[in-house]
Amino acid sequence: MPDKNNNLILKSLKSLLVLMFLLVSFFIAMPNPTHGEYADIILNERSQKAGMRPVIFSHWFHRIRYRCKVCHTELGFKIKITENNISMSDLFEGRFCGACHNNETAWGLENCMLCHSGRMGLSTGIIQDPEPGGPR
Amino acid sequence: MSKLLRSNSFIILFVTFILTGCDLVIMAAVEVTDYYEEFEKNAANENQDLNASNTDPNSGEVNSSNTTEQLLNPVVKPWEGPWVRLRQDLIHDPDNPIFELLQEPGEPLHKLPGAEGGNLIDWELARLSGMIEPRETLDPDYQTETLDLDVFLDTNGSLPVVRFPHSTHTEWLGCNSCHDELFAMKTGETKFTMVDILNERACGACHGKVAFPINDCFRCHDTSHARYKKLIQINKEKLRREIERSNAG
């Protein structure tokens, strides 16, 4: 009787062990998918569907040259990702990025690959500190 | 007998924990070595690229063409620093034909005053000291506003009081980025907590995403309670004048 019981416990513990092993290895082996520079923005609402690489916009690069108000007040970029619903035709009409990337203020829209420079498969988002209060 | 059984299962449970611990350590070690190997490989590739364009094993002709090339595209001075390299950042595609034209983050950033977290830059200090001169407008006729008013938040907490400087924020940002979607234009009207901030609301809409991140606690919690009591008087006076000015104008 006790032997049988013991076996049962052993068996359930074994399966528990396997489960734990799987769980732990799943969490640890899960790669950190993105670690670009802080505040980089990936835009891929439309690009990949149309066969282009995702767009990468770097805040660090632009904020050396412009204050936030130039984009987020004067040019009307809403300060929330995806809410602007940027499309390529907007840019050609001189809105959003096209207000500067027009061969006058900055290089023009024909340099497709400078903006469309991301890896395929990235999803829209912003690069943040991995965990607030934690190490980088 | 049941006592023995219990102690047995206890031992087995204990062993399970130890094994899981070992598993954790091993997996972490594998992860680290993998990452390191990839890093080394990329670094080696990078060196090869550099060598390919700099040294010339064959003839003088190629060498001379290399030097004109180098004159046209001067090799940028190397920099040191913790900033991620575009080749290793896992978001830029190195197969992009004009990948090389993109600027490395560390190249301009290593010259600016350092800070903890985020871009590792104290952007406000960089602006104040004139190291960077970000333009205020695109259209020279466009009018922007600034406001020099400190708002004190969390005045009854145990930590130092939070000083929200409108001066810094309105140099960088327009009023519409905060008012009235994130905050009401009245001190104490908007209710939020530190948990909201950590969850990317209120101040966390920018701090932790683009402006300096949350781990720099005492840049926000920077005013002792004693100092706060003095400052609040000056502040009231300022606000009164501000309101009079806007009423007159």
Describe this structure in words.
The complex is a heterodimer of chains A (136) and B (249). By secondary structure, chain A is mainly alpha-helical. Chain A folds into 2 domains: 1-30; 40-126, Cytochrome C3 (Alpha-Beta Complex), CATH 3.90.10. Chain A is 38% helix and 7% strand. Chain A contains 5 helices and 3 strands. Chain A has helices at 2-29, 59-65, 68-74, 88-92, 112-115, and strands at residues 40-43, 55-58, 125-126. Chain A has a 3-stranded antiparallel sheet. The N and C termini of chain A lie far apart (56 Å). The model of chain A is unreliable at 131-136 (pLDDT under 50). Chain B is mainly alpha-helical and 249 residues long. Chain B starts with a helix and ends with a helix. Chain B has 3 domains: 2-72, no CATH class; 86-128, no CATH class; 150-248, Alpha-Beta Complex (Cytochrome C3), CATH 3.90.10. In chain B, 47% of the residues lie in helices and 5% in strands. A 3-stranded antiparallel sheet of chain B has the order 1-2-3. At the A-B interface, helix 1, helix 2 and helix 3 of A face helix 1 of B.
Question: What is the fold-level CATH name, i.e. the topology of the largest domain in chain B?
Answer: Cytochrome C3
Second CATH tier, the architecture of the largest domain in chain B: Alpha-Beta Complex
The main pleated sheet of chain B reads as: 3 strands, antiparallel
CATH level 1 class label of the largest domain in chain A: Alpha Beta
Distance between the termini of chain B: 91 Å
Structural class of chain B: mainly alpha
Keywords:
A: mainly alpha, Cytochrome C3, 38% helix, B: 249 residues, mainly alpha, 3 domains, 3-stranded antiparallel β-sheet, 8 helices, flat
Brief characterization of the structure:
By secondary structure, chain A is mainly alpha-helical.
